[in-house]
Amino acid sequence: MDAEPRIVSLELGARSYDIVIGGGLLARSGELIVHSLGKAQCAIVTDVNVAGFHLDALLDGLGDACPRRGVITLRPGEATKSFAELATLCQGLLELGIERGDLVIAFGGGVVGDIAGFAASILRRGVRCVQIPASLLAQVDSSVGGKTGINTPQGKNLIGSFTQPRLVLADSDVLKTLPERQFRAGYAEIVKYGLLGDVEFFSWLEKSWRDIFSGGPARAQAIEKCCRAKAAIVAEDERETGRRALLNLGHTFGHALEAYAGYSDRLLHGEAIAIGMALAFEFSNELGLCGGPDAGRAIAHLKAAGLPTEIGQIPGGAPDVDELLALIAQDKKVQAGVAAFILVRGIGEAFIERGVDMEKLQDFLVRKASGK
Length: 372
Ligand code: GLY
Hints:
- Helices cover 47% and strands 17% of the residues.
- It is α/β, with parallel strands linked by helices.
- The chain has 2 domains: 6-177, 3-Layer(aba) Sandwich (Rossmann fold), CATH 3.40.50.1970; 180-369, Dehydroquinate synthase-like, alpha domain (Up-down Bundle), CATH 1.20.1090.
- Helix 5 runs parallel beside helix 6 and helix 9 crosses helix 10 (269-286).
- The mean pLDDT is 94.
- Bound molecules: glycine.
- Residues 141, 145, 147, 244, 247-248 line the site of glycine.
């Protein structure tokens, strides 16, 4: 018998929704959807890996909550978040007869959640979306908060919308089939919450990360903690006009590295974010903003958990720094041509810096790209 699920509410007035966290949720998905949203026709968008392990369990769990169901199965991997795949997905949803009152169920990791959430947000000018995240990264971050989108050669997630899901069901059992590399990459986003604003949580992670990896009680605790932190930030700043940008700690560097790696398996999103967070701490230290011991402690924990922390760890050679700087200049946080960086004064003390000296940044990246 599964323990009662943990419920985190994201408060956004009429658009508020619950994030339900716990074991056995696929089996209860129909009941949970009907409780929040009533019965509806639905289309499930998933990827071949998740479908292979868990689609039957979801279909069983939905029961008659979603009477006319269609399934669209995408290729796994960041390259799926493209205009071409979005067009095919939208047409597929229309061919399934998905109407305004119906549901799109995004059942997968961050890639599926982002592209299916975006398709739902533009299909017939907006169809309701339920997120059923199937990776650690999606459970602690991308399924919550309403960011949806696709990538372009110019950069990551540059096309998209803020459209909140109506319900998030984070079933911890689904993580049992997640490849270890994917789990580790998702852990980088958990560490991010400690590093950006909660030194106590970071200290707890230093003690508890092995239990999180092995599926002990700390795992659900960590997922809940991250969802609560994110829900509080999104409730305050849904459209990222201020504090929500802190959730991008490591992302300005990380997104540029992902684009450089061609959104491929060479570098998973969470791995790029781990390197990006290490760079944010090192750069903050070089600028005299953050003490060396805090930077060293942050990087030591990422390394202990087996995450990459250096540009040179990206397989296939170091990127060209001019190319990285051009990608950074395309970041979504750019205003009047000036990129914003999330820098740190210490562990748990991230802040938004719009006045970064680009020459210092270039010098820093040249050294980092050459392994110094
Ligand atoms: N992943 C960062 C955010 O949702 O704002």
